[in-house]
Specification:
The structure is a homodimer. Chain A is mainly alpha-helical and about 475 residues long. Chain A has 3 domains: about 160 residues, MgtE N-terminal fold (Alpha Horseshoe), CATH 1.25.60; about 120 residues, CBS-domain; about 170 residues, SLC41 divalent cation transporters, integral membrane domain (Tetracycline Repressor, domain 2, Orthogonal Bundle). In chain A, about 70% of the residues lie in helices and about 5% in strands. The first copy, chain A, contains 22 helices and 6 strands. A 4-stranded mixed sheet of chain A has the order 1-2-3-4. In chain A, strand 2 and strand 3 form a beta hairpin. The longest helix of chain A is centred in the last third of the chain and has 34 residues. The radius of gyration of chain A is 30 Å and the shape is flat.
Chain lengths: ~475, ~475
C-alpha cells in the first residue's frame, strides 16, 4: 500500500502549494464575477481550469495520508474543493486516514454510489473501521459487492467492539501448513507478486487451522531450504483473542517489540493478525481522547467546525462544571454571615480551594497512570494511601505555612494566619485521600478512571476547601 | 532479542507468584527472628532458600520487559530483593525497560563494576539511552571496553539531544552495495546467523556509503535471484537526518506505516536507522510526560517513592499555583468593600471564574493539539479566533442565562442576575481570546505550548473572572 516516496519532508510545501492554488482559483473566480468583456472572461475561465489541473496533478503525487493531512487543515469550502479533485480510487483510503470529525464533513458531501465505490476499494477490516460513519444503505451496497468469504470477514470485523483486539485485527496474513519444508514455503511465496504490508512472519497452522507457531520471514532467508517448517518456527508465540482488550494487545506490542501478532479464536484457530501500525493508530487515538477529555472536550473537533457544532461538543463538560460550581457556591452561601463579618475570608478562600485542587490533581494523575499500567494491587493500595497522606501533611505544613504568613502579612491577624494553615493541612489531606479513592472506586465500578476523575476531584476540593476554611474560620474567628 | 514466549497472558500471574514468594520469604524471616530452637531455625533457613531458588527460576523464565513491569510494582525493599536475583547478563536490558524513576532506585544500589558489566551487554545506541543516568566513571569504563568503531557510534549517539531523530536511531542495519544482484544479497544474508530485529528492509548504498534506496526483505523472496539490486530497490525513500525533530520522525512512521527508516547525514550517507519500536517508546514517553505535566507533576514518579521525593517532584507546580492564587486573592481584595456590602458576591464569584476556566481549557486543548499536528497557519489563525469568539459569545449567553437565573432565584435580585450574565459573557470571551493566544505566543517564542498553557489560562480566567464580575457588580450594584 504505502508507496514510500520522498514526500515526508515536503508535506508542508505541498500544503502551501495547495493553498496557493486555491487562493489563485478564488481570485480568478472573484474576477470572473466582476464586470468585464467576454474575452477576459474566457481567459479567466482558462486560468481557473489550469489551476485545477495543476492542483489535481499535485494531489495525485501525494501519499493518501498526506492528502488527509491537507484536508484536515483546510476550511470546509476549500476542503470540499480539494476533495472533489482527489482521484476516485483513493477516496476510501483517505477517508480512513482523516479524523472522525473531518470524515463526517466529507461523507456528508458524497452520494451513496460514490461511498459504495470508495468502500469497495478497501480491505474488509478497513470497511469495518469506516462502517459506523456510513449510511445503512451504503453498507448494504458494499455487502452485495463482496464475495461470500469477504462478507463473513466483514461481519466478523464489524461485530467486535471498538476497544477489543478484534477491532485492531486485519486478515492480510499468510498462513502455511506445518507439514512442509522451507523450500515449499519459498516456492509458494515466489508465486505471490507481493506480500502484504508488515509481513514480518508467516503463521504456521495444522490441517484444522489451529495456530502452531510463527515463522519469521528473516529466518526463511538464513535457513537451509530442506529444513521442515516445524524445526525453524517459534512455538508458543504471543497471541491474542478477538475479545481481548485492545489496550492489552497494545501493551504486548510495546513490551515485546512486535511487528505483527496472530489472533486466534477459542479453539486456537487462526482468525487474523494485528500489526504494529494498527496498534500505533490505536495508541494515538486513545491518548488523544484522554487529552481531549482531560481538557473537557467530548470528542475531536474539526478545527473549522461551525460555532454551533463546537458549542454542542463542549456542552456536556460545561454543564457538569456548572453543577459543581453551583454546589461550591451554596457551600459559601452557608457562611455568608461569617464573610460579612470578616470580609478577608472571601479573598483568602480561593487560595485554599485552588491549592488543594492542584494537589489532588497531582495525586489523581499518578494513580490513574498506575491503574492504566496495572500497577495497583490490593496489596500495595494501602501503602499508596499512607504515602499520599504523608505527602499531603508535609505539603500542608509547608504551603500552609506560606499562605498563613501571607494572610498574616496582609491582614495583620495571626489567628487568621493559623486558621489558614490549619485549613490547608486538612484540605490537602482531603485531596490526597480522594485523589487515591476516586479512581480506585471508579475502576471498581467498571468505569474508566481517566474520564472525569479530574472534574470530580476538583469539585470535591472546591466545595471541601471552602467548607473547611470557612468552617474553621467561623468556629475560631467570628 | 525479544524471545517471543507465551508470557503475555501470564504477566499478572507471574507478578502474583513473585509477591507470594516474597511474602513467604518475609514470613520465614519473621519466624527466623523469633525465639525458636536451632533445628526450627535450620528449617526456616532452608525454606527461605527454597523460595529464593523458586523465585530465581520464575524470573529467568520471564521476558526482560515483564521483569521490568514487576519491578515497577514492588515497594523499594522487595524490588531490590528481586533485582538481586536477576541474572547479571539481563540487568542492562531491564534497566532500559524500567521507568526513569525506578531506574534511579536500581542504579543507586549497584556498584560501578556491576553497572559497567550491565552496560556492556547493550548496543551502543542503548548505552547512550542509559548514559544520562549513569555515573561518569561507569561511562568511562564502558568506553574502554568498546572497539574503536563502537566508541565512535556511542559518541555520536550520545551527542544527539533527546528530542531528535538521532536519539531514536540504532546501528543494527544491514546495508548492501548497489552494484550486486539479488543472489549475492541472498548469499550474504545466509551467512548471517540471524538478522537484527525489525529488519523489514536492507539499505542500498553506493561505494561511498550514500543511501541509494531500500530493498524490502519481502521482495527478496519473490524476486528472481539474477535481478540486479537497483532494479528492485525503492529509490527515494522516506529518510531522516539525525538533527531532525523526533516528533517529525514519529509522525512519518504513523503516516506511512513504516517499520524501519534510514537516517542519513548531510551528505546523504547512511548513518543509522530508526525502527518502529523506538518510535512507539518515544510516543509513549511523550504522551506520558504531557499527561504528567497536565496533572502538575514534573516527571514520572516511582509509585513507592519516599514522601520526601514526592514532595520534591510536585513542588514546582504547587509553587506556581500558589503565586497565581495569591494574585487572584489580591484581585478579590480590591473589591472587599463591595463584598462587605453585598456578600452574595462572594458566593457567586467562583462560578464565573470556574466556568470560564473550564471553557478556556477547552479552547486551549484544541489549539495545543492542532499546533502539535502542525495544523495552524498564519492563514487560518484569524478564522480560529473568530470561531472561538463566536463560541464564547454563544456559550456566554446560554450559560450566563442559566447562572443569572440561578443568582436571581437565590437572591431575588434581578440586577444581580443581569450582572452575573454580563460577567459570564465577558469572561468567556476573555477565556476564548487567551485560549487561542497563549499557545500561539508560547509557540512563537519557541516554548512547548503543551507545558504550562493550562496553568496560565486558569490563572488568567481566575483573576480575570473575579475582576470582571466584581468590577461590574461594583459599578452597577453597590
Amino acid at each position: 500500500m504505502a508507496e514510500r516516496q520522498d514526500i515526508h519532508p515536503s508535506v508542508q510545501d505541498s500544503l502551501q502549494r495547495v493553498t496557493e492554488l486555491l487562493h489563485k482559483h478564488e481570485l480568478a473566480e472573484g474576477h470572473a464575477h466582476g464586470e468585464q468583456g467576454p474575452r477576459q472572461e474566457l481567459v479567466e475561465t482558462l486560468m481557473h481550469k489550469l489551476h485545477f489541473v495543476e492542483l489535481r496533478k499535485l494531489l495525485d503525487a501525494l501519499h493518501s495520508a498526506d492528502i488527509a493531512y491537507v484536508l484536515e487543515m483546510l476550511p470546509l469550502e476549500q476542503r470540499l474543493m480539494v476533495w472533489n479533485l482527489v482521484a476516485a480510487e483513493r477516496e476510501g483510503e483517505i477517508l480512513l486516514e482523516v479524523s472522525d470529525a473531518v470524515r463526517e464533513t466529507l461523507i456528508a458531501h458524497m452520494d451513496e454510489r460514490e461511498l459504495v465505490a470508495a468502500a469497495e476499494q478497501l480491505d474488509t477490516d478497513e470497511i469495518a473501521d469506516l462502517a459506523p460513519d456510513l449510511p445503512h444503505g451504503v453498507i448494504q451496497g458494499v455487502f452485495k459487492a463482496l464475495s461470500p468469504g469477504e462478507r463473513e470477514q466483514l461481519r466478523a470485523a464489524m461485530s467486535y467492539p471498538e476497544d477489543t483486539a478484534g477491532a485492531l485485527m486485519d486478515f492480510d496474513m499468510i498462513s502455511i501448513r506445518d507439514d512442509v519444508t522451507v523450500e515449499v514455503v519459498l516456492r509458494y511465496l515466489r508465486r505471490l507478486d507481493e506480500m502484504p504490508d508488515h509481513t514480518d512472519q508467516l503463521f504456521v497452522v495444522d490441517r484444522t487451522g489451529r495456530l502452531e507457531g510463527l515463522l519469521p520471514v528473516n529466518r526463511l532467508l538464513v535457513t537451509d531450504p530442506g529444513t521442515p517448517v516445524t524445526a525453524v518456527m517459534q512455538p508458543e508465540p504471543v497471541k491474542f483473542h478477538p475479545e481481548e482488550k485492545a489496550q492489552d494487545a497494545a501493551n504486548a506490542f510495546e513490551r515485546y517489540d512486535l511487528v505483527s501478532a496472530p489472533v486466534v479464536d477459542g479453539e486456537g484457530k487462526l482468525v487474523g493478525r494485528v500489526t504494529v501500525n494498527a496498534v500505533m493508530d490505536y495508541i494515538r487515538e486513545e491518548t488523544e481522547s484522554d487529552v481531549l477529555s482531560a481538557g473537557g472536550l467530548r470528542e475531536g473537533e474539526d478545527l473549522f467546525a461551525s460555532v454551533w457544532k463546537s458549542v454542542h461538543n463542549r456542552w456536556a463538560w460545561l454543564a457538569v462544571n456548572l453543577v459543581t460550581a453551583f454546589i461550591a457556591s451554596r457551600v459559601i452561601g452557608l457562611f455568608e454571615e461569617s464573610i460579612a463579618r470578616l470580609v478577608a475570608l472571601a479573598a483568602l478562600m480561593p487560595i485554599v480551594a485552588g491549592i488543594s485542587g492542584n494537589s489532588g490533581n497531582q495525586t489523581i494523575t499518578m494513580i490513574v497512570r498506575a491503574l492504566a499500567l496495572g500497577q495497583i494491587t490490593a496489596a500495595n493500595a494501602r501503602k499508596l494511601f499512607a504515602k499520599e497522606i504523608g505527602v499531603s501533611v508535609l505539603n500542608g505544613l509547608i504551603w500552609g505555612g506560606v499562605v498563613g504568613l501571607f494572610a498574616f502579612l496582609i491582614y495583620r491577624n495571626w489567628q487568621l494566619g493559623l486558621v489558614m494553615m490549619g485549613a490547608m493541612v486538612l484540605s490537602l489531606m482531603l485531596a490526597a485521600v480522594m485523589g487515591v479513592a476516586v479512581p480506585l472506586v471508579m475502576q471498581r465500578f467498571g468505569r474508566d478512571p481517566a474520564l472525569g476523575s479530574s472534574v470530580m476531584i476538583t469539585a470535591i476540593t472546591d466545595s471541601g476547601g471552602f467548607f473547611i476554611f470557612l468552617g474553621l474560620a467561623t468556629v475560631f474567628l467570628v
